[in-house]
Amino acid sequence: MIAEITCFVTKGIAIPVFVGIVLYSDQDALTVKYILTAIVIISCYTFMTVINRLPKVGLYTHMLNKVRISIMLFILLIIWVRK
């Protein structure tokens, strides 16, 4: 239930909002890169929640979740160091 709600919110709300911010607002190049990185991470997470429903895929999505968390921590570290 929570995964379905998260999937709907990310696909239906977060990604279009971020794309609208990139396309229609005046942001510097670094902010656009951060927003596009967030879009890619959210899209990958949404894809993982969709393929998680298939049998024999749960182990792979668990490994991909660990990779996603590592990537997010790395990106947050880069953002924190640059400021």
Give a brief description.
Helices cover 86% and strands 0% of the residues. It is built from three helices and no strands.
- Specify the structural class: mainly alpha
Total domain units: 1
Strand content: under 5%
The SSE string, one letter per element, is HHH
Largest sheet report: none
Low-confidence stretches: none
**Helix count from the secondary structure assignment:** 3
Query: Percent of residues in helical segments?
Result: over 70%
* Straight-line distance between termini: 37 Å
Write the layout of secondary structure elements.
Layout: H1 2-24, H2 29-51, H3 58-82
Helix pairs in contact: 1-2, 2-3
What does this entry look like structurally?
The chain has 83 residues and is mainly alpha-helical. The chain has one domain. Helix content is 86%, strand content 0%. It contains 3 helices and no strands. The chain has helices spanning 2-24, 29-51, 58-82. α2 packs antiparallel against α3 (58-82). The radius of gyration is 14 Å and the shape is flat. The model has no long low-confidence stretch (mean pLDDT 78).
Name some characteristics of this structure.
single chain; 83 residues; mainly alpha
